[in-house]
Each structure stands twice: as structure tokens, then as C-alpha cells.
Write a structure and sequence with these properties.
The protein is of the alpha/beta class. It has two domains: 29-264, Type I PLP-dependent aspartate aminotransferase-like (Major domain) (Aspartate Aminotransferase, domain 2, 3-Layer(aba) Sandwich), CATH 3.40.640; 269-387, Aspartate Aminotransferase, domain 1 (Alpha-Beta Complex). It is 35% helix and 15% strand. The chain has helices at 44-61, 75-87, 100-112, 209-217, 251-267, 269-289, 316-319, 323-339, 366-387, and strands spanning 68-73, 93-97, 118-122, 139-143, 145-146, 151-152, 167-170, 187-191, 202-207, 231-232, 235-236, 294-296, 308-313, 355-359. The strands form four sheets. A seven-stranded mixed β-sheet has the order 1-9-8-7-4-2-3, sandwiched between helices. A three-stranded antiparallel β-sheet has the order 12-13-14. A two-stranded antiparallel sheet has the order 5-6. The chain starts with 43 loop residues before the first helix and ends with a helix. 47% of the residues are buried. The model has no long low-confidence stretch (mean pLDDT 97).
Amino acid sequence: MNAISSPDVRPQNPNFSSGPCAKRPGYSLQALSGAFLGRSHRAAEPKAQLADVIARSRRILGMPADWRLGIVPGSDTGAVEMALWSLLGARPVDILTFESFGEGWATDIVKHLKLSDATVLTADYGALPDLGRTDPAHDIVFTWNGTTSGVRMANADWIADDRQGLTICDATSATFAMELPWSKLDVVTWSWQKALGGEAAHGMLALSPRAVERLETYTPPWPLPKIFRLTSKGKIAEAVFKGETINTPSMLCVEDAMDGLKWAEGVGGLPALIARSEANLKAVADWVASSDWAGFLAQDPAIRSCTAICLTIVAPWFVALGPDERSKAAKQLATMLEKLGVAYDIGSYRDAPPGIRIWGGATVETSDIVALLPWLDWAHAQTAAAYR
């Protein structure tokens, strides 16, 4: 079992979780020393900081000037649910599901909102649904990047410029790592704990003018909890998009989000963040190309995620195992590296095919990815020996 020597170099930061994600390089708790603790989020300085988080996020992402962006409760989940409950029902809806979060939105729309004119377009993990089956007259709900499948949209060519419906995009593991085609989107959501490694529980909700028009001209037939309400007396609640949150935010988390945004600006903004993430994917892809046991869950290179990098084990010994044994073996491989402090949280998502998931967002140094890869070879050899 121990015949093969372990690598000499370890990742400097062993955090490869896909959420919450790694903090930016050089992070320390000292970054939070200026937090407005014990202050009301309605007070002038804390409110100004909330507005600054919104403004910096807009600038880095290149969001159009006529879009609105607000901080909302419940992380990305809260942001998506606000959009679904507030906007859907005016038109038929197409839902794209190719990983667990898209499946969750489909469940909410079909079983909880009980929309009878909903069409669910599905694909297995590692692939995309037939995008050509979406109808521009329908609303469309989809994830831009599959956090649990390692699959992303290659482009937005499939979305009509003259669409009548709204496109509601869960982009939580795509923002700050991929270009988003704002002209093709109407609602975009994300959370602080993904691409910039912020703390959890806060979401971001971006609305196009078309989405705002829907909010002001359509009233859903179901009751809306206060925490979901984005309008007041038939008009958009503008204060939400100027730093006045619906419920009380953590000012400690706000300070942490600000630290991540300032770091993003300091390294060169969105182009630099994308380059860092793509470099991480390339390092893994170069390694997979010469590996005799690891492969990408996404077979098509054009749709491979540069943030949630999902790998499968293709070695004959592994393929020959039964489903339960494959899950056990993959978990054993990941747990081995976790116990050694080499890599934390790299097991595949519980509903995904057994394998490895490495977060490759911009806060992860490529040097740490490169250091991790020989350890994966080592852990695979150890695991394989135990099953032969």
C-alpha cells in the first residue's frame, strides 16, 4: 500500500472546495478589522459600504448601466427563489437541468409553484440539454455553469435577441470567472461565497430593464413572503438596489466581500480573474491528457467549466466495480488527501457520478493546482492497490 512515495511538494493552500470557496491569496482575518460591527446597516457608513459592494461588483462584471443590482438574503438560492416566485407565471417556462441546482429549480417551479406550462429539458451530468428546444416566447431558467457537473455554457447564441420571455440565469459559479453576455440575460444571480471566496448567506440579484418591467406589470397569483418582495405599490423597490437590504445583513460578511472585490480590482479586474481561472483549467487539462486513470466528466472541451472542474476515474479497476463500490473508492481517494491536509473537499457532489471536483476559480493559485495533481496520482495508486 505504501510502496509508492508521496510527492515532495504540497499545495500552499489545500482548500479546493466548490463552496464556500478558497479565500483570495494572502488572506488573513486582519482584512476584517474595519468591519462595522455593532452598527445598524441603516446607518450612513454601513449603508454606504453596502452600496459600494454593489457599485464595485457592477464595475468589475461590466454590468450595463440600466441594470439594477441588489444584495438579498439567502445566498444564491435566495436570489434565484426571489426571481422565480416574483417573475414566473406570466408565460410558459423552459427549465434547463444538467446538474443538481437546475434540478432544484425545476422541482420548485413544477411542484411548488405548480406551473402546468413548464417544460423541463434535461441532460445527464457532463452534457448540456438540447438548447435549440428552448422557445423565445417562453421564460427560460438555467444555470450558466454547473457547479456539480463541471459543465458550462459555451456561449449564448441559442438565446434569441428578440425573445419575448425572460432569461433567468443562476450564475453563482460563473461570475468573476467567465464572461456573461448581459444582452442575452434578464436576471442574473450569484453569491459571495463562490468565485471571490466571500462568506455565506448573502446573494446578489441583477435585473435587466425587461425584468423590472415584468415586476411592475405582472402580479403572481400566489402570496409572496416579505423576504421575496421586490416591488412596492406596483413599482420596483429602488432602495433594495441602493444598499438598503430587505433584512439585516452581516456587516462582517460585507467587509469580507469588500476585501474580495478590492483584491479582484487589484489583480486586474474581470480579464485577470478569467485568465487565472482558465489557467487552472489548463493545468488540469494538460495533466488529464497524459493520465491513464483520470478523465473529464464533460467530454466536450468547449463546455468544460474553469471553476467547478469535475473529473471521473476511468481506470479499468474502477470501472469494473459496482456502483456502491465506485462511490466508496472515490470517497476513499478524496478522504486520503483530506486526512493528510493536502486537499480538502475534492470529492464529487453527492448526486453526481463518483469522482473528483476541484474548484479552479480565480482565488485558487495555479501553483496549488499543479502541486495537487501528483498527489492525485499518488492517492489513486494507493486506492487502486487496495481494490486489486
